[in-house]
Amino acid sequence: MDRLKIFLNAMRTQRKLVISRGGLIGAALVLTASLAMPVWAATFSFATGSANGLLGALSRRPSPGKVETETADDFLLQETTVITRATVTGLIPAGTPLERISDVEVEMYHVFPLDSIDPPSGNVPSRNNSPSDVEIDTATRARSAGTLEISARVLDPNFIVANTVVNGVAAKTGGEGPIAGEEVEITITFTSPIILPPGHYFFRPEVLVNHADFLYLSGPRPIVAPGTPFLPDLQAWMRNSNLAPDWLRIGTDIIEGATPPTFNMAFSLTGETVAEIGTPQEPNCQGQTISALAHQFGNIHAAASALGFSSVQALQNGFSLFCE
Question: Fewer CB atoms inside 10 Å of the end CB: C or N, the chain?
Fold first, then answer.
């Protein structure tokens, strides 16, 4: 009987050892898999909201007989972000074929006084909280340059805006009154994604419509859900090539009035945030960045694909400019 008990106890002990070893092996496999898995980037998404019908402001590429006219609105980045897509909502004349939207250019600006002459010219009421004099040169993209692609769709074939600013880009003009047309949304895919460090920026799209103009439509101010509220949310600014490098506040300066309105513009941005990358202008920025991206996404090829770059070389080129 004692021998039987000893035999049974021995069997139980061996079984526990087998289970224990199996558990350890399983735990080791789980740990190995978790270490091998990439730490995916967080999706970045920003939107001001749908067009509200209060304002249409000219946003036009230069063309024969037509001066360049820019309209810009701000957004905030909490982390280094790779921007891969954008949308802008605007008004074109009713019946205009969408194929006539032939070019879109996007520029990004710091907030004045960065990239600007300071003190400013004094030719406008204020430059406080305006876009800078000049754009961030590494963040300019255009269809004509092959660095972005566009698609457009009609949201409303009969959309009315209460006021417009087209030719009167000057202080106290009051705007040029209401207009109706087709509300269109242009989706912009950056074939060369835009990389920006944390900061406060202005987004400026320009649209070339053959034989017509594109009026950039206003969105809610203040921004409300499902938009992306943030502070400080600055108002939209505008200039043409005759006014540059200065800008005017569309509501406060151009439309003005007893109670000047303020505007946001209807746009969105999407992309991915990236972590633990190098610091621009530091000697080790490029190496640290590529290493961090490889770790974050599992390998550098996966990083290029996830962030919207056409190749590893394109990613390296993009972050090389970021690090300068």
Answer: N
